Amino acid sequence: MYNRFLAIIFSFFFLLPISEAEEQSAIWLLTIDSAITPATADYIVQALTKAQTENVALVVLTIDTPGGLDLAMREIIQAILVSAIPVVSYVHPAGARAASAGTYILYASHIAAMSPATNLGAATPVQLGELDNKTKQVVIDTTATPTTTKSNADTLHDKMVNDADAYLQSLAALRERNAIWASKAVRESASLSAEEALKENVIDLMATDINDLLKKLQGREVKVLGEVKKLETEQHPIKIIDPNWRNQLLSIVTNPNIAYLLMLLGIYGVFFELSSPGSVLPGVLGGIAILLALFAFQVLPINYAGMGLILLGIAFMAAEAFFPSFILGLGGVVAFVMGSIMLMDTDLPYFAISPALIGGLALVSTLFFIWVIKMSLQIRTQPIITGQEAMIGAIGECISHQQEQLRVFVHSEMWNAQATQPIQQGQAVRVIARKGLLLTVEPINITDNK
């Protein structure tokens, strides 16, 4: 009995650290399931950085993306290249793709894997912004005859393609993958299915799901930071790493449609605060919205000409409220719509502002300023009720008329007055002029009253 008790105590103290070690050596599962944005890069880079201190055995990055921003992609790739923990990029589930930026991440990973019925490729860089295709520059090549002429757009496109090609080929050389096809993916927008990618040595293996992937990775050797490591994947639990609240907030704020709305809400909030000082709430919310919009714009491909048109349009529409002319309001709406369309300086569809959102806000702005014009026209036709002009035509009563001093009662006030005709005490009078505190009045006859 005593020996059995000692055995239990022995097992408790010596097996507990082993279970803790196994829990620490988990396999982390990260996910990219949309366009690659600064929020995506923040999520992946933070997770890989934290994994270095958590003694993680392996990081599996599942990919299903149409592509994304070059800077965000390069941040992710740099984090993978300096990682001391093997990173497996896995195009999953069936029907997923690793297009454009996803192809680069796949090439950069220590192990590249794909599910059946997936594809990768189309890695040609997309032009951000528009160039003036009419502007030509002469490129002189001393080895060629005759002299060749290329547009600025063609020259910039060639630079982008050459840079992307060299980058992907360097990753292919690092991971000993097919560099020839990598060049085709960049220059010809070539794509491959999972089966073709495995045959062409673009990926390392195919797996139907995560469990099948880990089974096939067991015992596989991989080079990490110059050292060969043998993967042990059977005894480690899988831990799903979801984006934290910071990543989620960054993902929401950097959505082009949300950033666009934040900018407009901020501008209108500050405008209403300045037009009605003391409201406080519009100014506070507007200031917060503007700062969040500026934060989003610094990581998004923004066309500053488009932003300038939006600001000009809002300024015109605001001026319409103070100086109704219809022209300012119409010009403001036109500038606002054109600026909104031009705001995102990219041809990538997932970074474009929704046309429905632009049209809806333009319609709301148009209706608002039609209402402003209507109200201003109504105000102009209403009689004057305050100021010196409001006294003209006012009806009063003569209170006293002694020794050429005339006093009348008008608008519940006693006034000194002078008359153009004789006036009797108690007689009704009408104001026809005012000079300072002296009114000029005329008597109202019975026929006039009728």
Account of the protein in words:
The protein has 450 residues and is α/β, with parallel strands linked by helices. The protein has three domains: 2-130 and 159-246, Alpha-Beta Complex (2-enoyl-CoA Hydratase, Chain A, domain 1); 252-381, no CATH class; 388-449, Nucleic acid-binding proteins (OB fold (Dihydrolipoamide Acetyltransferase, E2P)), CATH 2.40.50. Helix content is 48%, strand content 19%. The protein has helices at 2-24, 38-53, 70-81, 101-108, 152-175, 179-187, 194-199, 210-217, 245-253, 256-275, 281-297, 304-322, 327-342, 355-381, 446-449; strands at 27-32, 58-63, 87-91, 97-99, 111-114, 119-121, 136-139, 148-151, 191-193, 205-206, 221-224, 227-230, 238-240, 395-402, 405-410, 413-419, 428-435, 438-443. The strands form five sheets. A six-stranded parallel beta sheet has the order 10-5-3-2-1-13. Strand 1 (27-32), helix 2 (38-53) and strand 2 form a beta-alpha-beta unit. The model is unreliable at 5-22 and 128-147 (pLDDT under 50). Keywords: Membrane, Transmembrane, Transmembrane helix. Residues 29-222 form the NfeD1b N-terminal domain. Residues 257-373 form the NfeD integral membrane domain. It is found in: Membrane.
